[in-house]
Amino acid sequence: MSKLDEKTALVLIDLQQGIIAGEKAHPIDQLLANANSLIRAFRHAKLPIVIVNVNPIGATWTRVRVEVSGDMSQVLDTEVKQDAFLKISPVLEVEPKDIYVTKNTWNAFYNTALHRKLQEKNITGIVLGGISTSIGVEGTARAASELGYNLTFALDAMSDRVLEAHNHSVQYIFPRIGERGTTAEIIETLS
Fold this sequence. Notes:
Blueprint: E1 8-13, H1 17-20, H2 28-44, E2 49-54, H3 66-69, H4 72-80, E3 99-103, H5 114-120, E4 125-131, H6 133-146, E5 150-159, H7 163-177, E6 178-181, H8 183-190
Parallel strand pairs: 1-2, 1-4, 2-3, 4-5, 5-6
Helix pairs in contact: 2-8, 6-7
């Protein structure tokens, strides 16, 4: 990676209890440790930290293709209504002053105030991490690219349920819309 914009925000996607539970392609403890390292570095640099979670209840995409996949809205409705599903992992070192966004699709910009909140802070760059690489991270990255943000992907602060899906995003999609780096590389560039 070459550089970060002077006005860059850290955006962490779906590091909530209901999403981090279950098998992932990479160890979740290390992913969360890397996310915390990024949070501390961005906090030290006085740059915004955005914490995104997903609540798909009622989203249009959960009701389409019922004939193929069954009624996804009923499955999600049951899962999401569990008390802990929406809560950000207690391991993350978040603070009330961080920016919180709840999305209901794969893209953290769609039908949320994220773009407006970033524009209010004159943000031109975004460092992205989270789960799942091929869903929430990639969906948000594609929209961010369309909106003109310069993107950097924190490769060791993201994962997916399926390694092949993660690798596809990292190897084929992300290089076309941004730069890639490790947590250590991003922190070094930030300082």
